Amino acid sequence: MKDIIILGANGFGREVLQWIKDINAVKPTWNIKGFLDDNLNALEGYPCDYRLLGTIKDWSPSENEEFVFAIASPKVKELLASILKSKGAKFAHVVHPTSIIGEFCKIGEGLVVTPRAKISPNVKIGNFVTILGCGIGHDAEIGDFTTICGNCAINGHCKLGERVFVATSAVVAPSRRIGDDAYIAMGSMVMTHVKSNTKVMGNPAKRIDF
């Protein structure tokens, strides 16, 4: 059985810990070792049955260890993945047992899928993607390091670029293209294509600066 280490020990880290426990309750999959976080006080004041092992930047992966991101920021995921993979780190897929992944999907490395997400058939998912309890329509494409928050709807044939962040309860209309490093604010209704490095908000979503 592989060891698993959670990258990030804040609230999201403790959520990922719970989901790994849920997976292990259905089928023993990992030996949970604990957390890595560059903030060594991240667990202070929170009851938790696993400890913070050290910092991400100083950790040296071992052959039996797998890692999972509990970090939402696409750019931080990209940076840390590069650092850890250069040291030989391997990343697990953490998919909650209440979630659904359809047939004929293509999935990259380090996928995290939280409870009650639904990923339809023929979806293409890149590396280090985080899908937080939302719906992904058929034939959609999700680029590397992208994070899609809870209660979002990414409709069929959409294409999201790399490092996209889709905040809670946003909806992207079918067949829309979202460029690299785009940010979609919470509750937005995206009816048009979104250019790279653009932030949008509203219903219908429009470009904003903040």
Automatic annotation (TrEMBL):
Top-level taxon of the source organism: Bacteria
Transmembrane segments: none
Domain PglD N-terminal: 3-81
Residues the UniProt record annotates as site (Increases basicity of active site His): 139
SUPFAM superfamilies: Trimeric LpxA-like enzymes (SSF51161)
Keyword annotations from UniProtKB, A to Z: Acyltransferase, Transferase
Active site: residue positions: 138
GO MF terms, alphabetically ordered: acyltransferase activity
Stored Pfam families: PglD_N
Matches recorded under NCBIfam families: NeuD_NnaD
PANTHER family reported in the protein's UniProt record: ACETYLTRANSFERASE (PTHR43300), UDP-N-ACETYLBACILLOSAMINE N-ACETYLTRANSFERASE (PTHR43300:SF7)
Name under which the protein is recorded: Sialic acid O-acetyltransferase NeuD family sugar O-acyltransferase
